[in-house]
Amino acid sequence: PGSVFWHKKGWKLFTELIDYMKRKGMNAGYLEVNTPDMLDRSLWEKSGHWEKFGENMFTSTTPDEKIFALKPMNCPGHVQIFKNGLKSYRDLPIKYAEFGKVHRYEPSGALHGLMRVRHFTQDDGHIFLTEEQIKEECIRVHELILSIYKDFGFEDIVVKFSDRPEKRVGEDEIWDKAEKALIEAVESTNQKFELNPGEGAFYGPKLEYVLRDAIGRDWQCGTLQVDFNLPGRLGSFYIGSDGEKHVPVMLHRAIFGSLERFTGILIEHYAGRLPLWISPTQIVIVTINSQCDQYANDVLERCVMSNLRTEIDLRNEKISYKIREHISVKIPILFVIGQKEVEDGTVTIRELGNDVQRTVELKDAISEIKNRANPPDFNL
């Protein structure tokens, strides 16, 4: 169906990405919201999606002949939330974030693992603001995007500026204003960028963030878009300092883009050897014989209580076989336990990519690994 069946470890990685992004969003002033997966056709007609994007939308007709569509984007839903209650210029900017599930039709031949699916999760954000706030907020979003990519080991970033496409909504003078505002914002950061003519969204120009992985492949992930069109089309406004109604500008921003795709990019970039903090399994405890089982279970309990993602291998197999097997699936850290470790209250640490083993007191081993397993945003 072009959708992912998440197994245990893949889902753990996926949820770690969401937890990380929730923390970053909260610290940047975003309010997390959630909007319906299915919305009435009339909303998509007003937004312009039905005309410009309708052929890629999944629809359903109810017995009373109403037509609904699975959302291909989260933005109209966020406008609906913004419209709930009177807003003043003093309230702006207002930042909404959502891990929204979206559906977009892709031909069967275009589907490709995690990289190209029909149903995916976006780390979507929308900022409602005044024209005077565009530059400052674009700079903040740009810096946030780059800092997040750095946390995941991506520092070779190509930024592309995409201007008005042939198929679009809004008057040219509005597009002139939006393109000028976005260009000025990115230029003020001294960020180099490439021109990508005609590749903007149908409602506004955008910056595209392209990641270059460890072997030189390029992956388009994040976007930042300036939109003077959609808020007005859907009837949103705020009360300005003059006491009159004004239509807000909306910034659209996604950083991972598709979380499914970003998960695939991480796996490719690290060739399966993920950083310790996002590894679905951080430690596996392996025993030399069954006489070590009780102590090994005590070690497991201590690790789990310290929020380390830990598994245990008590199988009646040779220790060399167990070690090889866990190395082959890229487990970052093994705690090897034999009779000496049981007697001394220690563990022998074996790390992926390092043949040198070291024996450490259990409490010191847990403390060390816990500090190393902290997400990057915990170490600020």
Structure explained in plain terms:
The radius of gyration is 25 Å and the shape is elongated. It has two domains: 8-269, Bira Bifunctional Protein, Domain 2 (BirA Bifunctional Protein, domain 2), CATH 3.30.930; 276-378, Rossmann fold (3-Layer(aba) Sandwich), CATH 3.40.50. The chain has helices spanning 8-27, 41-47, 49-53, 75-82, 134-151, 172-188, 230-233, 259-269, 293-305, 319-328, 339-344, 362-372, and strands at residues 31-32, 38-40, 59-61, 67-70, 94-103, 119-129, 157-162, 194-196, 206-212, 218-227, 238-239, 245-246, 249-258, 283-287, 310-313, 333-337, 346-351, 358-361. It contains twelve helices and 18 strands. An eight-stranded mixed β-sheet has the order 1-5-6-13-10-9-7-8. A five-stranded mixed β-sheet has the order 15-14-16-17-18, sandwiched between helices.
Present the secondary structure layout.
Blueprint (H helix, E strand, L loop, with lengths): L7 H20 L3 E2 L5 E3 H7 L1 H5 L5 E3 L5 E4 L4 H8 L11 E10 L15 E11 L4 H18 L5 E6 L9 H17 L5 E3 L9 E7 L5 E10 L2 H4 L4 E2 L5 E2 L2 E10 H11 L13 E5 L5 H13 L4 E4 L5 H10 L4 E5 L1 H6 L1 E6 L6 E4 H11 L8
Parallel strand pairs: 1-5, 7-8, 14-15, 14-16
Antiparallel strand pairs: 2-4, 3-4, 5-6, 6-13, 7-9, 9-10, 10-13, 11-12, 16-17, 17-18
Helix pairs in contact: 5-6
